[in-house]
Amino acid sequence: MAVDLNMPVLIVDDYKTMLRIIRNLLNQLGFTNIVEAADGSAALEVLRQQPVGLVISDWNMAPMTGIQLLREVRADAKLKAIPFIMVTAESKSENVIVAKEAGVSNYIVKPFNAATLKKKIESVIGAF
Question: In this structure, is the dihedral angle defined by the CA atoms of residues 12, 13, 19 and 21, taken in order, positive or negative?
């Protein structure tokens, strides 16, 4: 089954520049329906109001971090199946373990490019 490039993709980051970078990369990859949230709590509101096919979230945000958002998503019966990619500047193995234990679908370390993003997205939702 082909990936629907028009499915809503939620990107979550408290840094506007990073939101713009990820949006541009997703546009390059052909995604057309991109929703933004500035932190985990705003992202949860979006997730509870509309269907989303993929979440790409920063780890370090306030007041709700990406890992807290991930735990909330995985604990919610309506949201738990949504593929979730965590973006972070930290490549420490203990962070990867924490994210895996929380149920992350995949993990991207900054900086990254469109090819890396495509590979990570394909690993969680299939080729496009």
Answer: negative
Q: What is 100-127 written as a DSSP string?
A: HHHT-SEEEESS--HHHHHHHHHHHH--
- Alpha helices of the chain — where are they, by DSSP H? 16-29, 40-49, 66-75, 93-102, 114-125
86: its two tokens: 């965590």
CB 15 within 8 A of CB 111: no
Say whether pLDDT at 44 is over 90. Answer: yes
> What span, in angstroms and rounded, lies between the C-alpha atoms of 112 and 22?
10
Write down the pTM of the prediction. Answer: 0.96
List, as own/partner pairs, every contact residues 93-96 make where C-beta atoms lie below 8 angstroms and the sequence separation is at least 24, other chains included.
Answer: 95/59
